[in-house]
Structures are given as C-alpha cells and as structure tokens.
C-alpha cells in the first residue's frame, strides 16, 4: 500500500464520489456560518423549499458586524444591524444553533469552533470565510467557501471539490527570543511568494512547529492562504489532544479515548 499524507487520509475518509471530471463530492463534518456570506444561501434554500440537511453539524456565529466595545445599546450602523438581525432570523427559521452578539460564547468564528470542541482532528470543516484554514492547526481539513457553496453544504452536507496537491513545509530549529508563529508563516510566505502555495494543501512540520502552542499553530494555518494555498494542516499530537479534551462539544470518557486512538493515525506516512 502506498504512503499517504495527512491530507490524503482525511480526503479519502470523506470521499463520497469521484465525478470523473477532475472533481469529487466530499462529506463535510462541520459547517460554521456567519452573517456576511450566509443570507443569500439561506434565501436560496427558502426559495427552493429546502431544509438544512444536518443542523447539528452547523453552528452560526455573528462576528463580522458586531462592535468590539459595549453591545448593550445595539448596533448603530443600519447595514450591519440588518445583517445581524437576518442571521438571527435565519438561524431560528432553519433550526441552527446561534451564538448571538450577547452570548458569552460568541467570538471570531474561527476561534469559536476550537473553543467549543466543535473543531476536532480529522474533520472536514468549511465556512464562508477564507481564513477557515485556521482549523487546520487541529489536523482538520478546513477551508473557506463561497456563498453558493454555503448553500450547497447547508442543503446536502457535501461539497464538490477538486483534490489539491500536497506540499510539506518543515521548519526546524528553536525560535529565538521575540520570534512568534506569525514570524514563521511570514518567513515561509516570503520564501515561496504569495502565490507559491496555489493549488496545494500545505502540511507544516518540524521542531519549530511542534513547539508552538495551539494558538500559534492556528496563526500559522490561518495565514497559509496568504501564500496562495487552499488550506494548512498540522498533524495532531498530545498538545492537540490536551487542548480538545473537556471542551463542551468534544467526546467524553470512552468516546474520547476511542477518538484519540483514531486521531493518532492522522500523520503522514513515511516515504
């Protein structure tokens, strides 16, 4: 059996069908939606009389149009207020859990998933935002999608994709004082250029990557798209498992032990 990369393994585990034209249909484990790229998608569902296929695999979070200061007086900008109100209505109409602007769990959509244990290793995760690649820090295949694709995932829990190429970026050595995860990814992009990762999913490995906190790894994967890549991945390890354990939506007890055993297989094979 030929060696497989982490990306290959996740892709194969979620492959529903090969369309024979260079595209495939893949299953989506988690769908995060926010107020900017979802209104037209929900409108399309309503016009077609469709329901959300898997509401429990979908989580709505308002984050682009809410103030970072006091929210008790509402949102002053009328366009922003309309988008937030529309998100709330769509979530209610389609039976999706929604973290509104006053919910303590609300935050940047890419961070809410990890904080809640909604993001787990080996999953496919999409959101109508390019920086969805953040979740790759957990060994999940995550990337942004367009509004029409948001509607497709809401309706079918699947997505039509062309498989990307593999790229491995190894960062060895120890970081000097004052050097951060952002310095690492900026250095990588500086080496390969802003289009160097086009058509690829990049897996990050090496001593420097392993030493990063989960937040640091999220930074690296978040900015992978600035190098043109489709997504960034980091193989899950004990640091990942410790972060995920006891999160509200993470597996518990024996289920966590079984999940952890599977997560340990999510590494690229030698060769």
Automatic annotation (TrEMBL):
Q: Give an example GO biological process.
A: L-leucine biosynthetic process
Alphabetized PANTHER family for the sequence: 3-ISOPROPYLMALATE DEHYDRATASE (PTHR43822:SF9), HOMOACONITASE, MITOCHONDRIAL-RELATED (PTHR43822)
Give the organism, scientific name: hydrothermal vent metagenome
What keywords is this UniProt entry annotated with?
4Fe-4S, Amino-acid biosynthesis, Branched-chain amino acid biosynthesis, Iron, Iron-sulfur, Leucine biosynthesis, Lyase, Metal-binding
State the protein's name: 3-isopropylmalate dehydratase
Stored Pfam families: Aconitase (PF00330)
Per the database entry, which stretches of residues form a coiled coil?
A: none
Which reaction is catalysed here?
(2R,3S)-3-isopropylmalate = (2S)-2-isopropylmalate
Q: What is its EC number?
A: 4.2.1.33
Q: Does the keyword Lyase apply?
A: yes
Role noted for this protein = Catalyzes the isomerization between 2-isopropylmalate and 3-isopropylmalate, via the formation of 2-isopropylmaleate.
Pathway assigned to this chain's UniProt record: Amino-acid biosynthesis; L-leucine biosynthesis; L-leucine from 3-methyl-2-oxobutanoate: step 2/4
Top enzyme class: lyase
Q: Which cofactor does it need?
A: [4Fe-4S] cluster
| Domain Aconitase/3-isopropylmalate dehydratase large subunit alpha/beta/alpha positions | 8-270
Question: Which GO terms label this protein's molecular function in UniProt?
Answer: 3-isopropylmalate dehydratase activity; 4 iron, 4 sulfur cluster binding; metal ion binding
């Amino acid at each position: 059996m030929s060696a497989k990369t982490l990306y290959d393994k996740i892709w194969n585990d979620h492959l529903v069908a090969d369309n024979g034209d260079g595209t495939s249909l893949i299953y989506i484990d988690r769908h995060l939606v926010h107020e900017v790229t979802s209104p037209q998608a929900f409108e399309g569902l309503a016009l077609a009389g469709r329901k959300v296929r898997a509401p429990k695999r979908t989580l709505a979070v308002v984050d682009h149009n809410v103030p970072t200061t006091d929210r008790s007086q509402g949102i002053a900008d009328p366009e922003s207020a309309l988008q937030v109100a529309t998100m709330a209505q769509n979530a209610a109409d389609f039976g999706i859990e929604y973290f509104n602007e006053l919910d303590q769990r609300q935050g940047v959509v890419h961070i809410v998933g990890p904080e809640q244990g909604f993001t787990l290793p080996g999953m496919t995760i999409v959101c109508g935002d390019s920086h969805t690649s953040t979740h790759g820090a957990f060994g999940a295949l995550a990337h942004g999608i367009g509004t029409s694709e948001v509607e497709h995932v809401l309706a079918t829990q699947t997505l039509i994709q062309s498989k990307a190429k593999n790229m491995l970026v190894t960062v060895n050595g120890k970081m000097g004082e004052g050097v951060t995860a952002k310095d690492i990814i900026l250095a990588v992009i500086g080496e390969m250029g802003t289009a160097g990762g086009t058509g690829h999913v990049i897996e990050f490995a090496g001593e420097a990557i392993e030493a990063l906190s989960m937040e640091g790894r999220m930074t690296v994967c978040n900015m992978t798209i600035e190098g043109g890549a489709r997504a960034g991945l980091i193989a899950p390890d004990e640091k990942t498992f410790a972060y995920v354990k006891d999160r509200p939506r993470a597996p518990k007890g024996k289920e966590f032990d079984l999940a952890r055993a599977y997560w340990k297989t999510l590494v690229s094979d030698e060769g």
